[in-house]
Amino acid sequence: MPNIEEKSQVVAEIKEKFQQSTGVVLADYRGLTVAEVTKLRTQLRQAGVEYKVLKNTLVRRAAQEVGVEGLETYLEGPTALAFSKDPVAPAKILMDFAKANKLKNFAIKAGVLEGKVIGPEGVKELADLPSREVLLAMVLRGMQAPLAGMANVLQGPIRKMGYALEEVRKLKEAQ
């Protein structure tokens, strides 16, 4: 049985993870095989997400000390936490993993987004958001559209002049 100092050290580590993360997802990992957990951890690690199975009482204490309120109701049964600086990555990876492997027992319990608790529906909505790269591409496309339109408008008179000259050439040939 770990002593009080070891537990307080673990609580301090969990607090630090909460403070450094903008996105945290809580999941019930029951029913996963060792191979599935290994595969999931690999996917999360590649995205820079830290995945830990922690005691609910220690997570509850750390959350209270950091000021995250409303998480207590979700800390029932086995709980794994995915911590990330990217708020969307853990939600997206865990949801995609559950869908891809058709896991019935694996469930998203809740999430913490920049210090605020969101339910499983909120985590699903977060997972459905496009990735950062896609959002940046959409912004760039939006910025380029007016410029492309302006270039098209400016080319119009030049194009018409070319058509007119071509018609004059055809008339001259016909004569």
Automatic annotation (TrEMBL):
GO MF entry, a single one? large ribosomal subunit rRNA binding
The cellular component terms of Gene Ontology attached to this UniProt record, alphabetical and capped at eight, are:
large ribosomal subunit
Q: Which CDD domains match?
A: Ribosomal_L10 (cd05797)
Origin superkingdom: Bacteria
Do you know which InterPro entries this protein is assigned to?
Answer: Ribosomal_uL10, Ribosomal_uL10-like_sf, Ribosomal_uL10_bac, Ribosomal_uL10_bac_type, Ribosomal_uL10_CS_bac
Write out the GO biological process terms. translation
Determine if Lipoprotein is one of this entry's keywords. no
Note the SUPFAM superfamilies from the entry.
Ribosomal protein L10-like (SSF160369)
* Keywords, sorted A to Z: Ribonucleoprotein, Ribosomal protein, RNA-binding, rRNA-binding
Keyword rRNA-binding tagged: yes
Role played: Forms part of the ribosomal stalk, playing a central role in the interaction of the ribosome with GTP-bound translation factors.
Q: To which protein family does this belong?
A: Belongs to the universal ribosomal protein uL10 family.
Assembly, in brief, is: Part of the ribosomal stalk of the 50S ribosomal subunit. The N-terminus interacts with L11 and the large rRNA to form the base of the stalk. The C-terminus forms an elongated spine to which L12 dimers bind in a sequential fashion forming a multimeric L10(L12)X complex.
Q: What is this protein called?
A: Large ribosomal subunit protein uL10
What is the originating organism of this protein? Desulfosporosinus acidiphilus (strain DSM 22704 / JCM 16185 / SJ4)
